[in-house]
Specification:
The protein has 14 helices and 2 strands; from the N terminus they run ααβαααααααααααβα. It is mainly alpha-helical. 43% of the residues are buried.
Length: 297
């Protein structure tokens, strides 16, 4: 299992890098079509919401409930982001919260020595390095609720095919629109490979940047930070200190000005009856965790 995870980590990290390098060479000689851009934005949005709304807020923290078709669609979209099967992702993240920035945290940047070298090594480990040394999780202990879901387990087994589908799908759309195989190929390159690279590193920045740089308005006992740039790029996940203060909250952008597109989607689904039991912190809970002197105080 450990050897298999290491091989998967190599493919997960390096394949999008190769796609970006090839895309850069291709862009230099041929340019970038508007169709590639549109498909890239659409696929980035779908797969990012699959991670933020599905993998994170629904499956890991159970911050809301939804109808089965939406539940399965979110799992498929999250799988197409190529950040690991839903059981792996959920188990790792639950352990992160249990041991945040302490021994046992799979990707803390704060356990690698002091000084500039410690910060650099820790940031590199939290961002990507941890995947090459990660030991398999105990799924029966970490995710028993997901194991009992037969439909979710089926999607977990089909994970490699779902990743491939996320790359092929924009190519098929481009082929249907243009009737040109060349357009299908460039769509797979940009909306597939390059999109994976961008989605990977914006998501992984939550592990690295959002435990090093930003504000901590709430007392959490760890080094989680709110980072507005990361929040915009990850559809609300960058309000990481908020999240660590209230892990089961469906809303991470707790202030009116904190952009949280993932919560907007959950709220919209709730408004039409597709989601329910949307969990939010009360005013008393917010006040009890607010650090005196912070902007939220």
């Amino acid at each position: 299992m450990e050897r298999s995870e290491r091989r998967a980590a190599v493919l997960t990290v390096l394949t999008p890098v190769v796609a970006v390098l090839f895309a850069g060479w291709h862009f230099w000689g041929h340019g970038l079509s508007m169709l590639d851009v549109i498909l890239g934005v659409i696929m980035y949005s779908i797969t990012m919401l699959g991670i933020t709304v599905g993998y994170h807020r629904l499956f890991t923290h159970r911050s809301f409930q939804c109808v089965t078709p939406i539940r399965m669609a979110l799992c498929i979209a999250g799988s197409m982001a190529a950040q690991g099967p839903v059981l792996f992702w959920t188990a790792c993240h639950r352990r992160h919260h249990q041991c945040s920035d302490a021994v046992g945290d799979p990707h803390s940047p704060h356990l690698h020595g002091a000084g500039a070298k410690g910060v650099f090594v820790g940031c590199l480990h939290a961002h990507v390095g941890w995947m090459f040394y990660h030991k398999p999780e105990n799924y029966i202990r970490r995710v028993p609720d997901l194991i009992r879901d037969r439909k979710l387990m089926a999607l977990n087994r089909y994970y490699p095919w779902l990743v491939a589908a996320g790359v092929v799908l924009p190519g098929l759309v481009a082929l249907a629109i243009t009737r040109q195989w060349y357009a299908a190929g460039t769509a797979m390159l940009w909306a597939g490979g390059v999109r994976l690279f961008l989605a990977h590193h914006t998501t992984w920045s939550i592990n690295s940047i959002c435990h090093l740089f930003g504000d901590s308005p709430y007392a959490t006992g760890d080094q989680s930070r709110n980072n507005g740039v990361c929040a915009v790029l990850t559809f609300g996940e960058g309000w990481h200190n908020n999240h660590h203060a209230f892990p089961t909250s469906a809303r991470h952008g707790l202030q009116w000005w904190q952009v949280d597109a993932s919560y907007w989607l959950i709220r919209a689904m709730s408004a039409v009856g597709l989601a329910w039991d949307v969990r939010l912190p009360s005013a008393a809970q917010l006040e009890s965790r607010t650090v005196v002197g912070s902007a939220e105080a």
